[in-house]
Amino acid sequence: MSGSRTEFTALQRSLHWLMAICILAMLFVGVGMVSTVGRQYIPLLATHKTLGIAILALAVIRLAVRFVYGAPALPGDLPEPMKLAAHLSHLALYALMIGMPLIGWAMMSAGGYPITLYGQIRLPPILPQSDSLHTLLWNAHFYLAFAFFALVLLHIAAALFHTLVRRDGVLQTMLPVGNSDVPLKPQRNTR
Ligand code: HEM
Ligand code: HEM
Questions:
Q1: Domains and CATH numbers, the chain
Q2: Distance between alpha carbon 157 and the CA centroid of its chain, in Å?
Q3: What is the DSSP string of the chain?
Q4: With a 6 A CB cut-off, is 145 part of the ligand 1 pocket?
Q5: CA-wise closest residue to 121 among 71, 24, 53
Q6: Ligand 1 centroid to 88 CA: how many Å?
Q7: Distance 73 CA to ligand 1 centre (A)
Q8: Is the CB of 96 under 6 A from ligand 1?
Q9: What is the residue with the minimal CA distance to atom 17 of ligand 1?
Q10: What are the b/e assignments for 37-67, b being 16+ CB within 10 Å?
Q11: Confidence (pLDDT) at 128
């Protein structure tokens, strides 16, 4: 399901940018939340949990949309190692978009904490209470958050490299507004 289009569908582009804003906000809310000793911790945590679960739902929808509509081909003249790096980094981003909220949810379950979202929506625990599991998942959530941040920065650097150095039209495939009339570099073949 890839290669026949020159850009992502409007739905894919909307989901990409909506989720990019939410995920960046989550990373900053997360760090802000654990750095505060004030009363802001409680509302920040409520925001963090609610937005995190919304990201999980959006990521599942996005993955389904991706399976249905595929993705435009990368430029045909992009070196194979770069294509591989692009595929692997996108895979890792999808894994983190789904993994991080699940780990957060599982961590709170193992810690025996209530998982209450905005509107008093209460989610069930997905793991039994266990101190050792809680510690393990806390560490996973902590270190993967930094890995997520690093990967997003690398992803942005790659987008800039495509736009400013290679000028190959890759950014146009994901811009929020359709760009069907923007000429893309020729010979974009299938991934
Ligand atoms: C894309 C989703 C998520 C991202 C990017 C994310 C990111 C983060 C970050 C950056 C921190 C701060 C880590 C630190 O410096 O110690 C954090 C802490 C935390 N996250 Fe998440 N998180 C996500 C989803 C969730 C979800 C869905 C939940 C729970 C339902 C959750 C629960 C927590 C809790 C309880 C903490 C604080 C732990 C503490 O107080 O030590 N997270 N998260
Ligand atoms: C938290 C922030 C972001 C996340 C999690 C994210 C995630 C992703 C993922 C998973 C894909 C692969 C789409 C697919 O094949 O289905 C993608 C594609 C893309 N993203 Fe992002 N993105 C973020 C921010 C950005 C930003 C800020 C830019 C621009 C500066 C950008 C530019 C692009 C471009 C140009 C593509 C298409 C690449 C290609 O076809 O190989 N992204 N993004």
A1: 10-177 (1.20.950)
A2: 16
A3: --SS-SS--HHHHHHHHHHHHHHHHHHHHHHHHHH--STTHHHHHHHHHHHHHHHHHHHHHHHHHHHHH--PPPBTTS-HHHHHHHHHHHHHHHHHHHHHHHHHHHHHHHTT--EE-GGG-EEPPSS---HHHHHHHHHHHHHHHHHHHHHHHHHHHHHHIIIIII--STGGGG-SS--TTSPPPS-B---
A4: yes
A5: 53
A6: 24
A7: 34
A8: no
A9: 30
A10: eeeeeeebbebbbebbbbbbebbeebeeebe
A11: 97
Q: Average pLDDT by consecutive 10-residue portion of the chain (191 residues)?
A: 76 98 97 90 95 98 97 95 97 98 98 95 97 98 98 98 95 83 42 43
Distance CA 107, CA 66 (A): 29
| Residue type present at position 134 | H
Residue type, 55: I
What are the structure tokens assigned to 45, written together?
């945590």
Rounded CA separation 78/11 (Å): 26
The finding on whether 75 has its CB within 6 A of some atom of ligand 1 is: no
User: CB under 8 Å to 119, separation ≥6 — which residues?
Assistant: none
Ligand 2: residue of 16, 19, 156, 190 to mutate (most ligand atoms within 8 A of CB) is: 16
